[in-house]
Amino acid sequence: MGRGRYFVRSVVLPVGVTVLGLLGWHLACVVAQAEVFPDPYATWLAFGELVDSQRIWGDIIASLFRVTWGFLLAAAVGIPLGLVVGWNTLAFSALNPIIQGLRPISPIAWIPIAILWFGIGDGAGIYLIFLASFFPITVGTMAAVRNISLVHQRSAWNFDLRGLELFRWVVLPAAMPQIITSLRIALGVAWLVIVAAEMVGMDSGLGYLINDARNAGSRYDLVVATMIVIGLIGIVLDLLIRRLERFDEVKWGYVER
Amino acid sequence: MTGGSGARPKVHFEDVSKAFDQRGGTLSVLEHIELTIFEGELVCLLGPSGCGKSTLLNICGGFERPTRGRVTIDGEEVDGPSSQRVFVFQEYGIFPWASVWDNIVLGIRHLSKAEQHRIVAETIELVGLEGFEKAYPMELSGGMKQRVEVARALAVSPDVIYMDEPFGALDSLTRLSMRSELIRIWQEKQQTILFVTHDVDESIQLADRIVVLSARPGRIREVVEVGLSHPRDLGSPEYGRIKNRLYELLGVSHSV
Ligand SMILES: Nc1ncnc2c1ncn2[C@@H]1O[C@H](COP(=O)(O)OP(=O)(O)OP(=O)(O)O)[C@@H](O)[C@H]1O
Ligand SMILES: [Mg+2]
User: Fold this and answer.
1) What pTM was estimated for this model as a whole?
2) Beta-sheet pairing, B42-46 with B192-197
3) Which residues surround ligand 2, an ion (CB under 5 A)?
4) Which of A147, A154, A157, A159 to mutate to test the interface with B (most CBs of B within 10 A)?
5) Which residues of chain B have pLDDT under 50?
6) Contact at 8 Å (CB) between B44 and B206?
7) Which end of chain B has the smaller Cβ count within 10 Å, N or C?
């Protein structure tokens, strides 16, 4: 009984709705007599074409390469910076206004400057992804540190934790659950931004592929197939980073306290 | 003095007052607290909610500064917390990100691995948490978490332990057994303990002396001696007499 219900809820329902969506898409194409916009079947064929032509792999690798390096660099700089700025009131007063001032600027707005500094290519892409991930990670880490409960701060004080020991025993682990959440957000944003960046200022990657397919004879079937690939990779990235939430040291942060 | 090793003064409050700035005004929380606590004594601070018990303990523990007066321990003025004097917090102070073992090892992290091992194992046995060394706090019951917190304090062999309503969040049965365990441990280790509570029975079951505070601003109304030896008979006439006296001091009638 319980298992049957679970099956209906978690398999039949989502699959059914997806099939209905595809059907609606198909019908809409028939009714509108769409010529340029592809129906689901044409998209499926385009997907096969992308895989057969081998071209998609190079573009996926190009996008993932930029996202990986930009994201890792942002985490390597943003987490330590966020820890220090969050903990030290002097550093907070000095740096918080700049961080808050730069944060609302969309990474897309940086594209011209990125191209000016790094030229068209991986350098500009990595720089943009760095910017896109850096602010969520730094601000998230800062907020996490500033939220450390008074009892834990006092415990640290009572047991004479200072300097690096303080960070290792209290500040970093206390902030970790929220840091992981900010990494998740940052990776999501990075994956959004890389597509836009590649459409405007790069000559490879999934974003470039979309633009190229449109320019080379309005191949909207390839455009839509690429969009679906982008979505699927985004889901996989999120699933991967969510694995960090399973460690015993951070589980406490995801249940109500 | 019961349970103590003599009458050497340990903690001394010299005319301590404390006021907080609150929304433009000042709120006087403690006034003219004058009190000496002797080595090895278990003293309860009893008073209504909001009267300044936690504040008094925080001042003694070095987390807050008094507005006037001072607190000395062994003749030296308290100017910050020390790992020789450990706090057991009203809300859980143990680290949820660390296992039971790592929580208890916190205060003795500078000792050799062998020493750490010996002390932690011993303390875990003392508080009855064998088998849970690797568990994380969220996998423990409230009472077990509180034991971890007590163990973390005991591991450093502190001379003074501050306990701020440590059993407040527990059910009444667990609370009762935690009290008798505390007495057992205290009789074995002979530390000086300052124990905050607003539970009249708790204070009579535990304390050598009970310091009764008035409602805010907290002042000492009276220091009540409990001349009963452990284990205490909760039905004895003396117990009832002290209980009546405490209710009287707190301004509530005992019979309902
Ligand atoms: N940091 C602070 N700033 C301003 N006011 C404070 C601060 N800490 C405590 N107070 C005030 O001091 C008073 C006494 O607080 P305290 O926590 O010492 O009470 P308590 O006796 O421990 O109460 P309870 O039994 O409810 O724990 C309260 O009115 C509280 O609002
Ligand atoms: Mg309190």
Assistant:
1) 0.86
2) parallel
3) B 54
4) A159
5) 1-5
6) yes
7) C
Look at residue B160 and tell me if it is in a domain. no
Decide if A158 and B92 are in contact by the 8 Å CB cutoff. no
Alpha helices in chain B (DSSP H): 53-61, 100-105, 113-126, 142-155, 172-189, 200-206, 237-250
Q: Which residues contact A117 (CB under 8 A, 6 or more apart)?
A: A123, A124, A127
| Cα distance between residue A215 and residue A209, in whole Å | 10
Residues in chain A predicted with pLDDT less than 50, given as ranges, are 257
> What CA–CA distance (Å, rounded) separates B56 from B65?
10
Beta bridge partners of B33: B16
Residue B159 lies in a domain: no
User: Quick check: bond before B96 cis, omega within 30?
Assistant: no
Number of domains observed in the structure of chain B: 1
Q: B105 and A157 in contact (C-beta within 8 Å)?
A: no
A136: its two tokens: 């969520």
Report yes or no: A92 and A242 within 8 Å, Cβ to Cβ: no
> Structural domain tally of chain A?
2
> Are both A71 and A14 inside the same structural domain?
no
The residue type found at B235 is: G
Residue B28: strand, helix, or coil: strand
Question: Which residues, at least 6 apart from B138, have a Cβ–Cβ distance to it below 8 Å?
Answer: A251, A252, A255, B96
Q: What is the DSSP letter of B229?
A: P
- ipTM for the whole complex: 0.88
Structural domain that includes position B17: 1-80+192-256
Of the candidates A152, A154, A253, which has its C-beta nearest B63's C-beta? A154
User: How many residues belong to chain A?
Assistant: 257
Res A34: pLDDT: 83
Question: Token pair 């500040």 is at which residue?
Answer: A171
**Are the C-beta atoms of residues A74 and A137 closer than 8 Å to each other?**
yes
Residue in this structure with the two tokens 């979505």, named with its chain if needed: A231
What is the pLDDT at residue A243? 94
Rounded Cα gap, residues B76 and B83, in angstroms: 15
Best residue of B88, B95, B148, B150 to probe chain A, by most A CBs closer than 10 Å? B95
Which residues 175-234 of chain A have a CB within 8 Å of chain B?
Answer: 176
Strand order in the sheet with B68-73: B25-38, B9-22, B68-73, B76-77
Q: Give me the CATH number covering residue B239.
A: 3.40.50.300
In a shared domain, residues A87 and A150: yes
Query: Which ligand lies nearest to the CA atom of residue B45 in the structure?
Result: 1
Distance CA B203, CA B207 (A): 6
Which residue puts its alpha carbon closest to atom 8 of ligand 1? Answer: B55
Judgement on whether residues A10 and A68 belong to the same structural domain of the protein: no
Which pLDDT score is estimated for A85?
Answer: 95
